[in-house]
């Protein structure tokens, strides 16, 4: 099995497992497929502007949490076996009003052809146990001792993943063993939980308890992609499934969809075994996403300014966020892909149209206008810290606590790269490389 086949099989295996653990996830998949089919029937080829229906239907992004740099490095080795590389750095500690003491990256394919074959992503968070806003020295020491005693990833799984990474493939028998072993690493453990220890961490952060209060890791959500997230939200609510209060990310509006919109059904109470008897926890939820056009560095800077503008207007007016955001988007964001491109805000590639006379200009926009080249949007393959934190926060029953009199522990993309022993790719730089390569292939430039 080639790496992309391993990756596709891994996504399917995790999805099947998660569906047995969280039955509402199966409902989410069914409704997502129904919405996608309806959108395809209504919009035709336009519905596949940001990816074929086959890709969209198969697409998943998972989320896991680990406790230490060592665990992070090991899980990076496993994902590398499936052709998934760390992309982006996300600090969720200050992105939410709730206590979320983690930093994150996402593992996914890098190359466009690999993304087209299977774009499986896993958003991976690691606890920041030395951040004094959340953990004092005594709790940090006890937490690190607890985490140091556990083994999340068996040596055999790590060995097979390393071979898959180095060889780019595995023989069928080894592939089956890797898939079974890696999937089992992310299954919900049935081992009894120390209630007192779990509750001590939960008083600070439910996320910290989910990471450091148990002896294993697990899939927190497995996210399908939908072509109309507003319709998905309506249909899930109509089935009596409790959704979070709002869709995270950019608003619905009449212009191009950009970046990422996400929502989820609320975390469900799941029976769990405790050392002092049965209980239940609410830590896993069903997320769904709609992906849009990636933005350039200038586009992301504008996006951040628009978010700040939305916050300011909401504070003074009290109007619903979706209403205010749509208003801000109409005022400041170009209303077409062409305008988004010409303003240098959207990320695109370009390809020549055979048989069409080439303009004398070297400006790619002139080629597109003359029909000699086609502008193709780069899909946003990554995540938004505020949206991710918003999903986390919306599924917490308690905001936890933090002491901002203390200084937070320093974390950045360099720290993440060092912890992983692998370079964390910058998604904006990666998209710039894709744009530049497409222009070089045509011997063109952007004016």
Automatic annotation (TrEMBL):
Its cofactor is Fe(2+). Keywords: Dioxygenase, Iron, Oxidoreductase. The keyword Nucleotide-binding does not apply. It is an enzyme of class 1 (oxidoreductase). It comes from the Bacteria. InterPro entries: HGLS, YdcJ_bac-like. Pfam families: HGLS. Its EC number is 1.13.11.93. One of its GO terms (molecular function) is dioxygenase activity. Belongs to the 2-oxoadipate dioxygenase/decarboxylase family. This is 2-oxoadipate dioxygenase/decarboxylase. It comes from Cryptosporangium arvum DSM 44712.
